[in-house]
Amino acid sequence: MNLSKIARRAALLSGLLGLFGSFAAPVHALEIKLPQETSQLKASTLAGYQSANSWCVMCHSLDYVNTQPPMSAAFWSAEVTKMVKVYGAPIPEDQVKLISEYLGKTYGTDQK
């Protein structure tokens, strides 16, 4: 096949693609509106309550936090540390222990 045949076929293909492309439906921006958050963390006087309300909800819905199985503060410490080191959660180091204790004592196996 010589170069002029290739050029003609490329031009024909380009024209057909342009013609069929003009029949495509216009693209509109998709708008998604999420409902207001209605869930709440269990209130507590523990310092980690405010920290969890500030930091956990950056990535997780409160329903997600509320429905976790009961685990110890040590488990939660490992989880929160993983979120910081592996997933890049911007939780300050001094807040990890506070959040872990709150989750362990309020939702987990450290409840009294």
UniProtKB/TrEMBL annotation:
The keyword Signal applies. InterPro entries: Cyt_c-like_dom_sf. One of its GO terms (molecular function) is electron transfer activity. The keyword Signal applies. It comes from Pandoraea cepalis. This is Sulfite:cytochrome C oxidoreductase subunit B. It comes from the Bacteria. Residues 1-24 form the signal peptide. Keywords: Signal.
